[in-house]
Protein backbone atom coordinates (compact mmCIF):
# COMPACT_ATOMS: atom_id res chain seq x y z
CA UNK A 1 0.00 0.00 0.00
CA UNK A 2 1.37 3.42 -0.96
CA UNK A 3 1.87 6.24 1.50
CA UNK A 4 -0.89 8.17 -0.26
CA UNK A 5 -3.35 5.30 0.20
CA UNK A 6 -2.46 4.95 3.86
CA UNK A 7 -3.08 8.64 4.45
CA UNK A 8 -6.53 8.38 2.83
CA UNK A 9 -7.75 5.52 5.07
CA UNK A 10 -8.87 7.63 8.09
CA UNK A 11 -10.86 9.90 5.76
CA UNK A 12 -12.87 7.20 4.04
CA UNK A 13 -15.35 6.87 6.87
CA UNK A 14 -16.48 10.51 6.72
CA UNK A 15 -15.73 11.53 3.14
CA UNK A 16 -18.42 12.52 0.64
CA UNK A 17 -18.02 9.24 -1.21
CA UNK A 18 -16.90 6.76 1.46
CA UNK A 19 -16.41 3.07 1.00
CA UNK A 20 -19.64 1.59 2.40
CA UNK A 21 -18.77 -0.73 5.28
CA UNK A 22 -20.94 -3.62 6.46
CA UNK A 23 -23.66 -2.63 4.01
CA UNK A 24 -25.95 -5.56 4.81
CA UNK A 25 -25.13 -6.06 8.49
CA UNK A 26 -28.29 -4.43 9.85
CA UNK A 27 -30.46 -6.40 7.46
CA UNK A 28 -29.88 -9.43 9.66
CA UNK A 29 -32.88 -10.59 11.68
CA UNK A 30 -30.84 -10.90 14.88
CA UNK A 31 -27.35 -9.91 15.93
CA UNK A 32 -25.44 -9.53 19.20
CA UNK A 33 -22.89 -7.28 20.80
CA UNK A 34 -21.61 -5.90 24.07
CA UNK A 35 -21.24 -2.51 25.71
CA UNK A 36 -19.01 -0.67 28.16
CA UNK A 37 -19.84 2.68 29.64
CA UNK A 38 -20.31 5.13 32.47
CA UNK A 39 -23.23 6.11 34.63
CA UNK A 40 -24.26 8.92 36.94
CA UNK A 41 -27.06 7.95 39.32
CA UNK A 42 -29.06 10.31 41.48
CA UNK A 43 -32.45 10.43 43.22
CA UNK A 44 -35.58 12.47 42.73
CA UNK A 45 -36.90 13.21 46.21
CA UNK A 46 -40.48 14.15 47.05
CA UNK A 47 -41.24 15.26 50.60
CA UNK A 48 -44.25 15.12 52.91
CA UNK A 49 -43.68 18.63 54.29
CA UNK A 50 -41.80 21.58 52.87
CA UNK A 51 -38.32 22.07 54.28
CA UNK A 52 -34.65 21.81 53.43
CA UNK A 53 -33.84 19.29 50.73
CA UNK A 54 -31.60 16.29 51.23
CA UNK A 55 -28.59 16.87 48.99
CA UNK A 56 -27.73 13.99 46.68
CA UNK A 57 -24.05 13.81 45.74
CA UNK A 58 -23.49 11.81 42.56
CA UNK A 59 -20.41 9.92 41.45
CA UNK A 60 -19.36 8.30 38.20
CA UNK A 61 -19.91 4.54 38.02
CA UNK A 62 -19.45 2.08 35.21
CA UNK A 63 -21.59 -0.26 33.11
CA UNK A 64 -20.87 -3.49 31.29
CA UNK A 65 -23.33 -5.72 29.50
CA UNK A 66 -24.55 -7.62 26.45
CA UNK A 67 -26.83 -6.61 23.59
CA UNK A 68 -29.32 -8.65 21.57
CA UNK A 69 -30.79 -6.73 18.62
CA UNK A 70 -33.89 -8.05 16.78
CA UNK A 71 -35.16 -6.56 13.52
CA UNK A 72 -38.89 -5.73 13.59
CA UNK A 73 -38.90 -3.77 10.34
CA UNK A 74 -36.41 -1.77 8.29
CA UNK A 75 -36.19 1.19 10.66
CA UNK A 76 -37.24 -0.34 13.99
CA UNK A 77 -35.32 -2.84 16.08
CA UNK A 78 -36.03 -4.38 19.48
CA UNK A 79 -33.06 -4.41 21.86
CA UNK A 80 -32.42 -6.29 25.08
CA UNK A 81 -29.40 -4.98 26.99
CA UNK A 82 -28.85 -6.87 30.27
CA UNK A 83 -25.96 -5.41 32.22
CA UNK A 84 -24.15 -4.95 35.50
CA UNK A 85 -23.93 -1.39 36.83
CA UNK A 86 -21.89 -0.11 39.78
CA UNK A 87 -22.61 3.26 41.36
CA UNK A 88 -22.40 5.24 44.62
CA UNK A 89 -24.62 8.07 45.86
CA UNK A 90 -24.14 10.13 49.02
CA UNK A 91 -27.09 11.62 50.89
CA UNK A 92 -26.30 14.74 52.92
CA UNK A 93 -29.02 15.47 55.50
CA UNK A 94 -29.70 18.98 56.86
CA UNK A 95 -29.12 19.32 60.65
CA UNK A 96 -32.70 20.66 60.92
CA UNK A 97 -34.00 17.12 60.32
CA UNK A 98 -32.77 16.01 63.74
CA UNK A 99 -34.42 16.77 67.10
CA UNK A 100 -31.02 16.98 68.80
CA UNK A 101 -27.58 18.00 67.59
CA UNK A 102 -26.54 15.34 65.02
CA UNK A 103 -23.11 13.80 64.69
CA UNK A 104 -21.27 13.97 61.35
CA UNK A 105 -22.14 10.30 60.75
CA UNK A 106 -25.84 11.10 61.25
CA UNK A 107 -25.75 13.65 58.44
CA UNK A 108 -24.29 11.31 55.81
CA UNK A 109 -25.55 8.11 54.25
CA UNK A 110 -23.57 6.31 51.54
CA UNK A 111 -25.81 4.41 49.12
CA UNK A 112 -23.70 1.86 47.25
CA UNK A 113 -25.49 -0.02 44.50
CA UNK A 114 -24.61 -3.05 42.44
CA UNK A 115 -27.41 -3.25 39.90
CA UNK A 116 -28.48 -5.93 37.47
CA UNK A 117 -30.20 -3.86 34.82
CA UNK A 118 -32.69 -5.33 32.30
CA UNK A 119 -33.84 -2.82 29.65
CA UNK A 120 -36.17 -3.70 26.76
CA UNK A 121 -35.90 -0.92 24.19
CA UNK A 122 -37.10 0.10 20.76
CA UNK A 123 -34.40 1.52 18.50
CA UNK A 124 -35.67 3.89 15.78
CA UNK A 125 -33.15 4.15 12.95
CA UNK A 126 -32.75 7.07 10.58
CA UNK A 127 -31.62 6.79 6.98
CA UNK A 128 -28.00 5.76 6.67
CA UNK A 129 -25.61 8.41 5.38
CA UNK A 130 -22.41 6.79 4.23
CA UNK A 131 -21.08 4.99 7.29
CA UNK A 132 -23.12 6.98 9.83
CA UNK A 133 -26.63 6.22 11.07
CA UNK A 134 -28.20 8.20 13.95
CA UNK A 135 -30.98 6.66 16.01
CA UNK A 136 -33.38 7.26 18.87
CA UNK A 137 -34.01 4.70 21.59
CA UNK A 138 -36.66 4.33 24.27
CA UNK A 139 -38.37 1.75 26.40
CA UNK A 140 -38.77 0.29 29.86
CA UNK A 141 -36.44 -1.47 32.26
CA UNK A 142 -36.31 -3.34 35.54
CA UNK A 143 -33.40 -3.09 37.98
CA UNK A 144 -32.37 -5.50 40.71
CA UNK A 145 -30.25 -3.81 43.37
CA UNK A 146 -28.01 -6.49 44.88
CA UNK A 147 -26.90 -4.03 47.60
CA UNK A 148 -30.38 -2.96 48.72
CA UNK A 149 -30.14 -4.27 52.34
CA UNK A 150 -33.87 -5.02 52.02
CA UNK A 151 -33.69 -8.12 54.22
CA UNK A 152 -31.89 -6.38 57.07
CA UNK A 153 -33.82 -5.80 60.28
CA UNK A 154 -31.41 -2.96 61.15
CA UNK A 155 -32.19 0.51 59.86
CA UNK A 156 -30.64 3.96 59.90
CA UNK A 157 -30.44 3.98 63.68
CA UNK A 158 -27.80 1.28 63.17
CA UNK A 159 -26.44 3.18 60.10
CA UNK A 160 -28.09 0.76 57.67
CA UNK A 161 -29.80 2.49 54.73
CA UNK A 162 -32.35 0.19 53.08
CA UNK A 163 -33.85 0.19 49.61
CA UNK A 164 -36.28 -2.04 47.75
CA UNK A 165 -34.53 -4.67 45.63
CA UNK A 166 -36.60 -4.23 42.43
CA UNK A 167 -37.47 -1.01 40.64
CA UNK A 168 -38.98 -0.17 37.25
CA UNK A 169 -37.98 2.67 34.94
CA UNK A 170 -38.49 4.24 31.56
CA UNK A 171 -35.56 5.22 29.37
CA UNK A 172 -35.03 7.58 26.42
CA UNK A 173 -31.90 8.49 24.51
CA UNK A 174 -30.08 8.78 21.23
CA UNK A 175 -26.92 7.52 19.60
CA UNK A 176 -25.00 7.02 16.37
CA UNK A 177 -24.05 3.81 14.59
CA UNK A 178 -20.61 4.20 13.03
CA UNK A 179 -19.79 1.45 10.52
CA UNK A 180 -16.15 0.47 10.36
CA UNK A 181 -14.71 -2.22 8.14
CA UNK A 182 -15.17 -5.02 10.69
CA UNK A 183 -17.72 -3.89 13.31
CA UNK A 184 -20.28 -1.26 14.28
CA UNK A 185 -19.24 1.19 16.98
CA UNK A 186 -22.22 2.86 18.62
CA UNK A 187 -21.81 5.62 21.26
CA UNK A 188 -25.06 6.64 22.95
CA UNK A 189 -26.44 8.68 25.83
CA UNK A 190 -29.61 7.75 27.72
CA UNK A 191 -31.70 9.10 30.55
CA UNK A 192 -33.25 6.71 33.07
CA UNK A 193 -36.31 7.71 35.12
CA UNK A 194 -37.50 5.56 38.01
CA UNK A 195 -41.25 4.93 38.22
CA UNK A 196 -41.49 3.44 41.70
CA UNK A 197 -40.53 4.52 45.21
CA UNK A 198 -37.33 2.72 46.22
CA UNK A 199 -37.06 3.63 49.89
CA UNK A 200 -37.67 1.21 52.77
CA UNK A 201 -38.66 3.34 55.76
CA UNK A 202 -37.10 3.00 59.17
CA UNK A 203 -39.03 1.19 61.89
CA UNK A 204 -39.64 4.51 63.62
CA UNK A 205 -42.16 6.49 61.51
CA UNK A 206 -40.61 9.75 62.78
CA UNK A 207 -37.11 8.77 61.69
CA UNK A 208 -35.10 11.85 60.62
CA UNK A 209 -33.65 9.83 57.71
CA UNK A 210 -36.87 8.52 56.16
CA UNK A 211 -39.85 10.05 57.99
CA UNK A 212 -40.26 13.11 55.72
CA UNK A 213 -39.61 11.36 52.40
CA UNK A 214 -42.77 10.79 50.36
CA UNK A 215 -40.91 9.02 47.55
CA UNK A 216 -37.37 8.42 46.36
CA UNK A 217 -36.91 7.50 42.70
CA UNK A 218 -33.85 6.90 40.55
CA UNK A 219 -32.64 9.43 38.03
CA UNK A 220 -29.63 8.40 35.98
CA UNK A 221 -27.63 9.16 32.85
CA UNK A 222 -25.85 6.38 30.93
CA UNK A 223 -23.09 6.92 28.39
CA UNK A 224 -22.46 3.61 26.65
CA UNK A 225 -20.12 2.45 23.90
CA UNK A 226 -21.56 -0.54 22.07
CA UNK A 227 -19.75 -2.90 19.71
CA UNK A 228 -21.52 -5.24 17.24
Automatic annotation (TrEMBL):
Residues 28-198 form the Outer membrane protein beta-barrel domain. It holds the Pfam family OMP_b-brl_2. It comes from the Bacteria. InterPro entries: Beta-barrel_OMP_2. This is Probable protein-translocating porin PorT. The lineage of its organism: Bacteria, Pseudomonadati, Bacteroidota, Flavobacteriia, Flavobacteriales.
